[in-house]
Prior knowledge:
Blueprint: H1 2-14, H2 17-22, E1 36-40, E2 43-47, E3 55-60, H3 67-78, H4 80-85, E4 88-94, H5 98-108, E5 125-127, H6 132-136, E6 151-156, E7 162-168, H7 176-192, E8 206-207, H8 215-220, H9 224-227, E9 228-231, E10 235-238
Amino acid sequence: xxxxxxxxxxxxxxxxxxxxQNSKQIPLIGSLAPSFTALSTNGELTFPNDFxxxxxxxxxxxxxxxxxxxxxxLELAFLQTELDQLNVKFAVISTDDIxxxxxxxxxxxxxxxxxxxxxKILFPILEDPLKKASITYGMxxxxxxxxxxxxxxxxxxxxxxxxxxxxxxxxxGRNIAEIERxxxxxxxxxxxxxxxxxxWNEGDDMMVPHFPYTQLDLAxxxxxxxxxxxxxxxxxxxKSGDKITSE
Length: 247
């Protein structure tokens, strides 16, 4: 009898939603973004494959029609053109189904948020009612909810490698400008092989990951000293008026 009870408890624990989530590690920075196929407001899509050689962002949100989520999607819609110029495509996902997504999208496109006029939502909103993608990406945090995603942000490069991960609580909307800043910083770091210091913004000085020049380099090009400066003996900076618009 005791053995039977023990096996029953073991089965329930092994196949519970919480155990299922814990057995699935969140994809890590540097790993390939897991692929999944889902219905969306733009038809059936496979993420990230269908987005080609662009930078990609996958946003998860708790629930359609909720006020904070609505504000986030309207901010994304407002920045669609700007992000497109940075070669960024994005998709939004929640555990609601496609019929709910379509109604929510239609509702949002009728709103005038912050006096900007009505915004068309061109990016896809993906359904995940079975929670498969949400579990794969670690977007269900059991202490908060096993049925609603928290606010996840996965930034993925053109080679489909995850470059940045952020999670936000349900109560607080994301800073879309910070997400854009992170994209620009990643693109700049890839292009220049430099590092971006704290609070870096486009056009700011960048950090050099190694001593910037040798004595021979300096002898051949004395003007190198004008391009770099240091703070202490560990932090070297390259002066930059550089701008990046796309990659």
